[in-house]
Amino acid sequence: MSVTEAGPGSDSPPFTGVGVALVTLFDAWGELDAPATADLAARLVELGVGAVVVAGSTGEAAALSAAERAELLAAVRAAVTGVPVIAGTGAPSARQAGRLTAAAADGGADAVLVLSPPGAADPRPYYDVVAGAARGVPVIAYHFPQLAPPGIPVKLLDDLPAVACKDSSGDPARFVEALATYGGHYYPGSSALLLMAGALGCPGAIDVLANYAPERSVAAFAGHAEAQLALASDFRAVMDDFPGEVKRLTAERFGTSAVTRLG
After folding, report:
1. Strands 185-188 and 17-21
2. What Cα–Cα distance (Å) separates residue 112 from each residue in 46, 76, 80, 200?
3. Which of 126, 127, 142, 187 is catalytic?
4. Own/partner pairs for 39-45, CB < 8 Å, 24+ apart?
5. Are 108 and 81 in contact, with CB atoms under 8 Å apart?
6. How far apart are CA 245 and CA 251, in angstroms?
7. Is the peptide bond before 92 cis (omega within 30 degrees of 0)?
8. Residue 142: active-site member
């Protein structure tokens, strides 16, 4: 399904299946390697991922310039066919996020994934600005309180001009509460909840471990308990050394660069 079919208020999910929270690859000098990143994205699509998220938290977005974000999106957009390409556009202020969102929309993003602003108890005004800048491109709100506290209260989700929400808190109680009460589409961003998300009818997930184990992530979401358990030790290791460990594991499988700008 193309994400362009889904807009604010749409019944269509932005994507289905497991999307990858794509790493951003840098060369030995720490410079952006957009072609290599795009090649990795295309390889992961061949292996079964249902969407590609560029310049998200896993993609070290905080260390990317606006020009690098545009270059990265263009390269991945050109290399990937058949699945949505989603751009991370969250920022500390609504003004910044609005500019990043408008640039992503102009660059051909199928949707934008927008981290909530740190320190904002009520993120609704922030998302109003983002939705205006998106000019019809679907907005996915992003709850990740460990990175941008306090995150998005469940009771405010339906007030946001967003078609969906990604939840990277890893909190199963919150996850179930949101599924029971939220009218939009809900995606886990925690590798630990793939099996649960599939069983509870989520349209998909956005997974960091899909950078190097997409088959296992897809299997876990499809209901294979063994695949979910096999992801457990890697997930703990990745969270303890983020994003360095996921880049190391990706390099081990695909021969990509393990250079990071963060961490």
Report:
1. unpaired
2. 23, 14, 16, 24
3. 142
4. 39/79, 40/211, 40/250, 40/254, 40/256, 41/76, 41/79, 41/80, 41/85, 42/79, 42/80, 43/254, 44/20, 44/210, 44/211, 44/214, 45/80, 45/81, 45/82, 45/83
5. no
6. 10
7. no
8. yes
Which two tokens mark 149?
Answer: 């506290």
What percent of the residues of the chain are helix, what percent strand, and what percent coil, each to the nearest 5? 45, 15, 40
Is residue 182 among the annotated active site residues?
Answer: no
| Tokens standing for residue 148 | 């941008």
Q: Which residue among 166, 182, 212, 247 is the active-site one?
A: 166
Paired tokens of 197: 């998300």
Closest CA to 74 of 113, 35, 19, 25: 35
Q: And the tokens for 250? A: 């990706």
* String of DSSP letters for 27-81: -TTS-B-HHHHHHHHHHHHHTT-SEEEESSTTTTGGG--HHHHHHHHHHHHHH--
d(CA 72, CA 6): 23
Tens place of pLDDT for every residue, the chain, 263 residues? Answer: 333 344 444 579 999 999 999 999 999 999 999 999 999 999 999 999 999 999 999 999 999 999 999 999 999 999 999 999 999 999 999 999 999 999 999 999 999 999 999 999 999 999 999 999 999 999 999 999 999 999 999 999 999 999 999 999 999 999 999 999 999 999 999 999 999 999 999 999 999 999 999 999 999 999 999 999 999 989 989 999 999 999 999 999 999 999 999 97
Q: What is the pLDDT of residue 9?
A: 43
Rounded to a whole number of angstroms, the CA Rg of the chain reads 16
pLDDT at position 11, please? 78
Asked whether the beta carbons of 152 and 174 are under 8 A apart, the reply is no
DSSP tag of 139: E
